[in-house]
Amino acid sequence: MGLNKRQKAFADEYIKNAGNSYQAAIAAGYSQAYAKNAAKKLVENGGIQQYIQERLRPLERKADLDVDKAITHLLDIGMGRRIEARTTTYDHIKKKLVDDVTMKYSPGTKQQVEALELYLKYKGVLRNASKGLEDAQTRKALAEADIAEAKAKDIKEANDKGGAVIIDDIPSGDETEDQDQDK
Fold first, then answer.
1. Rg of the chain in Å (alpha carbons)
2. Dihedral-angle region of residue 80 (phi above 0 means left; psi in -120 to 50 means alpha; beta otherwise)
3. Which of 35, 64, 90, 158 could form a Cys-Cys staple with 25, CB 3.0–4.6 A?
4. Per residue in 48-79, pLDDT tens?
């Protein structure tokens, strides 16, 4: 695996803070100015991903958690079934268990919607709406870059041949009327 101390510190902090890569990078010793860029690279690092998985595996075994159980629990919440939850309070000063409560409850509407949304995202049925917008903006930017590149090529070719190129960047009549109405 071969991770350095800072990479291990990042991975450990990433696990502790439930996946906040920016905060994990800062806690691992990266400067705030560099933490955002470092966090992205660190999260994508295969060695760090493997290290995180290895660190989580014993915890998952101890909790007897696997993907099937997690999805079943998520669906139980999403369908509004009664959930049994256990909470404990431990007094670290007195070094004893103070409270151990098991309760049953029905998830609220908000919890149900969030659980179903998460499940549908997991299944790939539900996409992030902003992702589609980002994709459309990227396609538009690439198309505009292609057009600008083609215009530049036409100008260069015409210039090399001693000719001229007329570029029609003036808006059509409909667009001009729309702009006049906006004023």
1. 28
2. left
3. 35
4. 999 988 888 887 777 666 778 888 888 999 89
